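$ fold --in a.seq
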Amino acid sequence: MSNGATPTRDALDDKVNRLFAGKVVRKDLVRKVKVGANVPVFVLEFLLGKYCASSDEVAIQMGLQVVNDTLANNYIRSDESMKAQAKVKDQGRHAFIDKVKVRLVDSDFWAEVTNFGHKNVHVPEHYVREYERLVMGGVWAQVDMRFEYDEESRGKNPFWIDKLTPIQIATFDLEEYRRVRREFTTDEWLDLIMRSMGYEPKEMSRRLKLLFLVRLIPLAERNYNLVELGPRGTGKSYVVQEVSPYSALLTGGTTVANLFGHMTGRQKGMVQIWDVVGFDEVADLQKMPKEVITTMKTYCESGTFQRGQEAVAGDASIAMFGNTNQPVDVMVQTGHLFAPMPDIIRDDMAFIDRLHFYLPGWEIPKMRNDMFTDHYGFVVDYLAEALREMRKHNYTEIIDRHFSLGTHLNARDRKAVRKTVSGLMKILFPHGEVGRDELVELLEFAMEGRRRVKEQLKKMGSFEYYHTSFSYTSQETGEERFVGVPEQGGRDLISTDPLAPGTVYSAGVTSDGTVGLYRLEVSVSSGTGKLKSAGGSGGAMKESIQRAFSFLQAKKTELAIARDLDVSDLHVEVIDLLGNRVEAELGVAFFVAAYSAMRKAPVSPALLILGDMSVQGNIKPLRSLTEPLQVAKDNGAKRALIPIENKRNFLDVSADIVEHVDPIFYGDPKTAAMKILGGL
């Protein structure tokens, strides 16, 4: 938009100006002013909405002048705090816009007025009671300040707040909002919401628009848990930071008391006061006390948590944002999509299972100038107020009008899908009127976002999350449809290519059905017959390898490797393919790998070796076959070497696995080696 020309208006601009007069603002004005003033968008638009909410160009220019004057005279830049303090002293009083935080010192309330640069400003107590947010993170407000010598502190704290007006819309009429929504088509409304967020929807795909909408769900839906991981510069935390005065963005660590309130109950926590609590850099959670994560886990499940003797409830949504450093295809192929999370969360499957939607941040383009709109959108605090008002309503049952959810969705999956649909309904169809096809779109989108969470849990090798074939059935036609995730690349961790001698795959399973998948690599160097660990093994795993090595030493003549073994050292490295640190006993796999390395004969490809052994070479069967074979099949295994004692367990294995993975049973280590080393 060069030479200061007025942007051309389109039909949607005319319509919103007619139907929402005074509640919309031209979004390029916001950017014009924003450049010169580091003020949150909702503060700017509060002023623009007051002076520029018009479609008459002359009125807009005059209004813009007022806004700029207001910002020049009444907004304090942080480097001008002394000048502002001097102004209040000279004039005796001054009104300005700033962020006010209040804290309790001994038994007095003191306000910190951020850019004004004074931490001990007298504040009338009734404001603290009226606006709880003052004590939790602070409020942007119009502040009327006076100067008066304070006897008690001998003039040290001479500033007094006379009047404090938070910057929020005074009244919001939900019925009017819903009524006027009926005048718009779904597409028009979707574009209006995009423009209200500051983006221009013309060039966007339908899917991209919906992804942007998901960022608003935490503002409209109570206790919604959203995670978005993606590249830098895609505006992940913009909504939480700029769009709503009811959300708080945490950067850096925090404490349990700050998030969930003090034990004494004297001070409320953030989750009770804000509508959304966002974590800007998820990686920072690593530095937080473990208790923060455990309390948050309970909170994300039920919206309640324990403080002292009390069970306390909050309805803030939790939004977590983090940066991915690798391209998504690499993440999908080599690990799982929660890899950028700090391990305090990444390794806590129960925590991850509580997330309702994983927004694929890699699909959102980096913010460029041409993505921002010059058209009209809602003044953001009007939109924020609308979304906040919608929090009181519930659309979680709306799916049941037309659809039932498939068997693979457990209780948590259903809750997540319903909450996402409900949130999207509130944003797109606040009047509650939605067509069947439009509902399908929301439902499939919601299922995809939840399935992405569950697919990662499945990749971590946990058997309880194996049902990821999400589907829904139409009540009218009885037709069942399945919903996938676009980036669902394969994870063939077990290579079907020929392997180097000494390399084998193995797996172990814990009592709760979590599977560990491993690649063992044994290499030979000249030495004196010792076993050296090159890393990756410890505890029970190391002991099982040691037992197998002792058996190898004892049987070296029988195995025809005595001459070679006496002048060699074996180096063993264990690579944890799923990264979930399952304690597995891999004796037989090591024995076969060592034999393969000594004989320089590769093991057949796409093979999984199961079982452990005693020092005498007696085989120890596995607790269960179903889980390890399922994980092996999903990761490319075609054959499995299985202890004969597990043969009866093979009857429990599903037909799907039997079809893909051929069993080879063995009764002793030597037979195991012979069967798969090409009959050496």
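$ fold --in b.seq
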Amino acid sequence: MPQIRRLPETLVNRIAAGEVVERPASALKELVENAIDAGSTRITVSIVEGGLGSIQVTDDGCGMSPEQMALALERHATSKLPDEAIEQVSTLGFRGEALPSIGSVAKLTIESRPTGSQDGWRKVVDHGTLVEEGPAALPPGTRVRVENLFGKIPARRKFLRTPRSEYAACHDVVRRLAMARPDIAFTFEHGERRIFAVQEGQDAPQRVAQIVARELADNGVVIDLERPSGEGTMRLSGIAGLPTYNRGVADHQYLFVNGRPVKDRLLTGAVRGAYAEMLARDRHAVLALFLDVPFADVDVNVHPAKTEVRFRDAAAVRGFIVSGLRNALSTGDRRSAQAPDSGAMGRWQSEPLNREPAPALASIFSGRDWSAPPQHRLAEARAEWAGDTQTLAAPQGRAEAAEALPEDAERFPLGIARGQVANTYIIAESADGLVLVDQHAAHERIVLERLRAAGAGEKVAASQAMLIPEVVELEEADCDRLEEHIDHFAKLGLIIERFGPNAMLVRAIPGVLKKADPEALLRDLADDIASHGSSLLLTEKIEHVLATMACHGSVRAGRVLNVAEMNALLREMEATPRSGQCNHGRPTWVKLSMEDVEKLFGRH
């Protein structure tokens, strides 16, 4: 029988290090968190070769005495738990394993000078062995340097990625921590290049926009909500990008719980649910959310790297985030986040200069006397032209359109309809530019919001009764799914009932969907419920159902609209939440400013 034995201390440290130090970014995260917990107001991070060469973190925090520094290098020694109430922890690094773990797999140099002391101290640990210590000259604070990571553990070293990949991971760590603490100044350098520097004393939306993307400030909504929770209050703050301002990957979603950056499946699922039916399936929102909950309502000690958390009431947290994001977006997302694409703008072509008249104009120019006319003929021509311009100023179609333009047209952000292109796009003239509207996308959003409003507060939407109830044959499983939601469909104006094992009877459909095909509608609804399974909350399932119904009830591309219908659609858009994007996250309208129009004609 194999005998049980105690492992050597060096091996124990390396096993512990494997949980905490996976790559340079892991070590960097622990060091920066220590600097934050030390009460720093300024933190500087410098790395070389993506952290594979070296990592250095310098702060102006409280510093450590030589005795405290010696304790910091022992396992499970920490200053961040004043008592044994680990559930009440409010600091970032509290496990007491970071420094000894890093020191067991790298060369670790710590220099520190306590506030109010004239002297600093230095310790150097190389892969678990103390190799040097003595006085050090530095300002108050702490400087930690990590070199030769996994240098004596080649099996671990070979699993590290390229310097470019390791740099990307380090960059992500620093900017998440910098966003978590906008009250602290951060400087991040890679080799000889400064990546970013942010000043202390910013608010969270300002810090996020500066680090993530400056245009986020103009394409996002600020969030600040509170809700009672347990013995305290939950608070959700930050900035959320408009659905039309999105990315192809989810790397630009930054989530924080009690000031701690996390990558939690519950929170990312809540974000996905909040943006459901506002984003295409392959697009992702850009946002930074800061969730603050009572310490007793969250467990932050469920993962060695502290990147995951566990909530006491997960459903309440999820519901708070979903409803909070949706409400915030409904106040600011009538905007369209997309200006005309620069590539598309570049494809507008000016009329080429041609010395020869076009063939169709040859008869006009041929046989003409192009010599300067006598002055009396010139005066007559000017008078004739002046008279013609009175006629040209308001042709019949234009005059009729002008009658629709009220004196206070500035009240209408989307302007007055002037026409339709390809039976799909509405052209409107606003006070400051030209507006192009995708009629199907816009109307689909309007119908969805009408259905959503009808379903809110348990109200019943208006129904359009069918002269003859229609029988829709479906698979038994689809009928079962629809039957489970009959009561909720009724509140939305869709009245159906089971009609045998493989059929549903449609008695009425929502008034806004009166031209929809009942069979196609029910098939899509059954597919929609099946695709989202039982993991979603019922309210989120209904949101998917509403979106499917809205698509069936909206004006299709290719339908000819008259001027009154186009203007009615524009006015509805101005009064409808989330009208800046369709149910799939694409913009419903774009604006070409008069300045852009003038540039196209070389007038600006």
